[in-house]
Design a protein that fits this description.
Rossmann fold, homodimer, 23% strand, alpha/beta, 2 domains, 37% helix, 7-stranded parallel beta sheet, DNA-binding, Arc Repressor Mutant, subunit A, 9 helices, 3-stranded antiparallel beta sheet
Chain lengths: 248, 248
DNA sequence: TATAAATAGGCAAAAAAGTGCAAAAATATG
DNA sequence: CATATTTTTGCACTTTTTTGCCTATTTATA
């Protein structure tokens, strides 16, 4: 069998079954696993498939969602980088959805080994691409507007875990009003998340600071860390720092 | 043998077998391999064949592989459209992941009002965009390779529902071997899905027909509908139809 | 953390390809 | 017809490609 034929065969198997094992191909085509590995390497640099330990995966399965224009993306990236400091190897992390949290999911260091819980579909999609984190999706009804799980079953599930850290992307935060939002179902879930976690970090652009909405998620004193794009010594944060929130 | 005769012979062999080896041709025509190589070089600059190390490949063979992705996508879209006929307003539909199912998710008519259950992140992402369907995500550990929920909790959840229809994107289906797959965790979940649903429809391109993998999801007699891109009267389906599967 | 599988990188043998050359054959030209 | 010119072909040689094997590392997973 010619090399090109072999590679075509491999691609066909991948498109057919979404994944192949080097060992299987080696047996089927009757060449050494080294040869298969070299083929997979070539095809992967040609962007025809995704090479993984032990074989290869179909590309179509792993193409990413289109990133739409995100408001203040640079600020959100900065926030994400700051938030990384809170996440350590072996941690159990519970995260909400929201563009800032998704940005964080994208930049998690590949070496990080941790367990993430989330009910957000876009966030889960990003976490799932990470090689070393274990992902537990909290299922139930999906809220269309926020693409996040809501409902009693999800809340029960959240109550049954005890994560080290909750990363909350929020809509509004204010010293007096606390963390607030405007979707009843989402608020119930976020409430449960804050309650369950040992520590809670709020991720938000400063624009949302000192604003409030109609439904309350938690008080300021339940927030352990506040992460924004501005320097932690900025005047804006004095009152929050006094209230016991650590500013990052 | 004249040079032109020889080249015509080579082209004939290529069209017949899709590939030729320089060494074979040298023996058959009784000229040196150098001459064959020069012939192949000439024919390849004339765009009559594709020269590769060791011989040559037919043009159609090669170009069909380049276009395979698009070709398969068309097939999957066709399958998705056929599958639509099974889905009625008010139904509870349980779906797996896989590119074909995701294609279906993309083309659900906006007017359709139904409840969808899934454990696939990409599929959920598509369902979530639909205005009128209610989406319940089945949560648990997410399998990285297939981006689908796996694990005992997910299976228990599936067992607790009684959907009207299960839409299964499969990796391999065969009359004797039944529906098979290659990931243990995924197989457990799919098994539960088939068990739970009143009716099961298998969505697959015909290329996956009559192929099998190592782990069994269910027997052919548990499959109610088989949906492929080919006409339902195609010879390929006789045996399946005889086994009681309705071909769409 | 320990163990087995998978991988990368170096090496060598074999196959194939490129190169230059010269003999043979075909073709052109006076 | 004789000679010059071009084309074709095979051969000797070097270079490149392909492949399998080996060993040290890395990776997956219990």
């Amino acid at each position: 069998m010619l090399k090109k034929e072999r590679q075509a065969f491999i691609l066909k198997q991948i498109n057919l079954h979404n994944r192949v094992l080097s060992s299987d191909l080696s047996l089927e085509i009757n060449v050494s696993e080294d040869t298969i590995r070299r083929d997979l390497l070539e095809l992967s640099v040609e962007d025809k498939l995704i090479k993984v330990h032990g074989g290869a995966l179909s590309k179509s399965f792993h193409s990413s969602f289109l990133r739409e224009d995100i408001y203040q993306l640079d600020a959100k990236k900065l926030i994400a980088h700051k938030a990384l400091n809170l996440i350590k190897d072996g941690m159990f992390v519970l995260t909400s959805g929201g563009t800032t949290v998704i940005e964080l999911a994208r930049i998690l260091p590949v070496a990080l080994k941790a367990t993430f819980f989330t009910g957000s579909i876009p966030a889960a999609y990003e976490y799932a691409k990470h090689p070393n984190i274990e992902l537990i999706f909290i299922g139930d009804k999906i809220s269309k507007s926020s693409q996040i799980t809501v409902g009693g079953e999800a809340i029960m599930k959240i109550n049954s875990i005890k994560p080290d850290l909750c990363l909350l992307g929020v809509n509004a935060i204010d010293l007096a009003a606390g963390v607030t939002d405007n979707d009843w179902d989402v608020v119930q879930v976020k409430k449960a998340m804050v309650e369950a976690a040992s520590k809670t970090a709020v991720l938000t652009i400063t624009e949302k600071l000192n604003s409030s909405q109609k439904l309350k998620i938690c008080d300021i004193n339940q927030v352990d860390y506040l992460i924004t794009e501005k320097d932690h010594q900025h005047d804006l944060f004095h009152a929050y720092a006094s209230a016991g929130v650590e500013i990052l």
